[in-house]
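Work Package 4 report. The design task specified in the project plan requires that, given a folded chain encoded as C-alpha cells, an amino acid be chosen for each position. We show below one input record used in the internal validation round.
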C-alpha cells in the first residue's frame, strides 16, 4: 500500500501535545488517505517516555480563491476524513502490534487520539472503518469497557460484551460455595435420598 504513504494530497503532520500543554518535538505524527483508505503513523524519536494527544495538524498554507495564501489547521477527524456523527465509532488496527482499537468519532474530532510511546516506539494505524452504535452493536458500551486498550479483535470483544449478562448469571449460579454444597449433598449410599 505504498500509495497510502506516498501521496501528498491529504497528507498532514500533527503535534503531540503533552498533558502539560507543551508540544513534544520528539514525536512525529502524520496522517494520509486515499479514497476510503487511511493511515496514521506516530513515531517517538527519543530514549524516553512520551504521552499526549494528537489532535490538530501543524499549520499549512492554502491558496484562497483570490490567490492569497493563508495558514490553516485540521483536526485529526478531518485529516482522516471521518464523519463527525456522535453515534459513529472508528475501528483501526496497529500493524506493529496487530491490535485493534475503537474510538468515538466525536472524540477523534474534538479531542484527538491519546497515545503513549516508549523509547523509539511507533504505531502504524491502518484499516480504519466506521461503525454505528446501536442496540445490536453497542460500540459505546464496548469503548467504555475497553478504556482505550487494544484487543486482537473488536468484533470478538463486542461479542464478549453482549454475553456479559449471561456470564454474570452463570457465575452467580455456579460458584464455589454452591458446588461444595452440591458435592456434600450427593447420594453416596444405596437407598439414600438427595437432600
Amino acid at each position: 500500500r505504498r500509495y497510502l504513504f506516498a501521496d501528498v494530497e491529504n497528507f498532514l503532520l500533527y503535534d503531540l501535545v503533552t498533558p502539560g500543554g507543551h508540544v513534544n518535538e520528539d514525536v512525529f505524527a502524520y496522517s494520509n488517505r486515499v479514497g476510503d483508505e487511511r493511515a496514521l503513523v506516530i513515531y517517538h524519536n527519543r530514549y524516553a517516555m512520551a504521552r499526549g494527544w494528537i489532535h490538530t495538524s501543524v499549520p499549512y498554507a492554502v491558496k484562497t480563491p483570490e490567490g492569497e495564501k493563508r495558514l490553516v489547521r485540521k483536526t485529526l477527524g478531518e485529516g482522516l476524513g471521518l464523519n463527525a456523527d456522535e453515534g459513529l465509532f472508528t475501528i483501526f488496527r496497529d500493524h506493529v502490534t496487530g491490535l485493534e482499537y475503537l474510538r468515538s468519532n466525536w472524540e477523534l474530532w474534538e479531542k484527538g487520539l491519546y497515545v503513549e510511546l516508549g523509547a523509539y516506539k511507533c504505531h502504524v494505524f491502518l484499516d480504519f472503518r466506521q461503525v454505528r452504535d446501536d442496540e445490536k452493536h453497542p460500540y459505546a458500551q464496548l469503548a467504555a469497557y475497553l478504556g482505550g486498550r487494544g484487543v486482537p479483535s473488536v468484533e470478538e470483544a463486542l461479542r464478549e460484551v453482549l454475553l456479559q449478562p449471561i456470564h454474570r448469571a452463570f457465575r452467580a449460579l455456579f460458584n464455589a460455595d454452591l458446588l461444595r454444597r452440591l458435592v456434600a449433598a450427593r447420594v453416596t449410599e444405596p437407598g439414600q435420598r438427595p437432600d
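The chain is about 25% helix and 35% strand. Validation will be extended to a larger panel in the next phase.
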